[in-house]
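Predict structure. Chain length: 141.
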Amino acid sequence: MTQTPPRFPPHPIRGVHVLHRRINCAPHFAEITVDFEPAPEGFAFEVAEGLTPAYEPADDVPRFFAAVAAGIEEQLRLPEHGIVPATRVVLRQARAHAWGSHELAFRIAGHLAAGKALCHDTGPADVTCSPAASAGSPGRR
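Prediction complete.
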């Protein structure tokens, strides 16, 4: 008998905060806070009304938000998690910096946020929880 994988998240997971920064010759900086809400099916991503981080050029900000969405969805759809994403994700806060903010940094922040949400739901003993996911960011915090 085949068991249906669980839907994620089974309940709201709010205030998942990630600060991703790496200081080297290719710096990264992205800070986000997201909420995961149960949805009837699939993956939906939205940005909270009025969220406009101070960043120049402002044209980059929508690409950063799209990168967060892509990172979260990629992480949730990894087969090793054994879940069916049925979630609405709301980006509540975002911070970018002229030095180190780019799409890859925000995509990684999205991956980490999804990892933290998965750990929050299943607990740190689960194999899906890595130190980086439960810490919120590789390296420094």
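Summary: Residues 124-128, 131-141 have pLDDT under 50 and may be disordered.
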